[in-house]
Description:
Layout lengths: L1 H27 L8 H8 L8 E6 L11 H6 L5 E7 L17 E2 L6 E4 L17 E5 L10 H14 L4 E4 L36 H11 L6 E4 L27 H10 L19 E4 L4 H9 L6 E8 L11 E8 L7 H15 L16 H6 L3 H7 L4 H20 L6
Parallel strand pairs: 1-2, 1-5, 2-4, 5-6, 6-7
Antiparallel strand pairs: 3-4, 8-10, 9-10
Helix pairs in contact: 4-5, 6-8
Amino acid sequence: MKKLLTGIIALVLVLSTFTAVIAGNDKGKKKEKFRLGVEVLLEDQIDLIKNKRVGLITNPTGVDQQLTSIADLLYNHPDVKLTALYGPEHGVRGSAQAGQYVEKYTDEKTGLPVYSLYGKTKKPTAEMLKDVDVLVFDIQDVGARFYTYIYTMALAMEAAKENDIPMIVLDRPNPIGGANVEGPVLEDKYSSFVGEYPIPVRHGMTAGELANLFNKEFGIGTDLTVVKMDGWKRNKYYDDTPLQFIPPSPNMPTLDTALVYPGTCLIEGTNVSEGRGTTRPFELIGAPFINGADLAEKLNSYHLPGVTFRDASFTPTFSKYANQLSHGIQVHVTDRRIYKPFETGLYIVKTIHDMYPAQFQFRTPGSNGISYFDNLVGNGSVRAGIEAGKSVTELEAAWQDDLDKFMDVREKYLMYK
């Protein structure tokens, strides 16, 4: 008994010493400071908007770390005169579903006019800007070329230039990191509101970095100021920051959605459901004609990096196959550092195409003769290659030279380590 008691005391002493060492080490570490562009603006650079009439382009993601809306922050600031609000797709307060046109209305909280920048008028008009001295943009992007907010930003930059108004972009993180770049560079012929400029699908840039690139490389030439973040690095994903994830749009509910989106968004260009109308949009992929077990087995046989596919069935409440039981897969990212979302998306599309040639369809071309799938990819060669039986490796090789050229241009506009 005495030996046992002595051993217990010795163990307690060792654990106490170990705990003290760890605590001492933690005290020596400084917690890294992190600030969003909006916080840097209000704390350090308020002179950019002080005593000026401000027009604000934002949505529910435009908040500080206390989750207070920038619209309310600016409206209640004694040195700022907020005069107008502008809403992208889904609106300033996020009340509109994908593709829904939002009319001009009055914001209930501030009483300010809210102008729609989605639908009939995507660019602010001179009339919309008549009471504005400076235009501010603060919206969370998701890191994919076909997410429309970055083009709302670009068109606002054009309007600011045309109306001789300076523009400020308040920067936010790229939620899927700023280190990895993937996919074809958009060809001019396939330019649309889901791809305005020649950048790759996963661009690995922040909205502020893209604003500078758009402004200088593509001739917008507006009086632009980008307010940088403090404490963000390129290898950080959204959950590596102290920020709470706010859905940037109704079908982008989680960071998991954003991780797969640069690839599984391609399903929108087909007759297969991308999971809209479910709780896991862009993670659930399927259709009534698919055998989920067979599809999951085939996709898992490729041993794609950082991803596993699970047989799944679901019934969408709206969009494709609404209220119809569909079968397919759920995409599970197991290692996001090596996961390649666009490559994975191509494998999914090609595999369903090859397994179900009689049922699978790309969306038919519109009045311009271009399939929506081609708009998403940014060229017509990927669809043609899939139909011709080319491998994903062959498809990827075809765009590598253009991607390498973009990487050289991109390097000039990276603001973070």
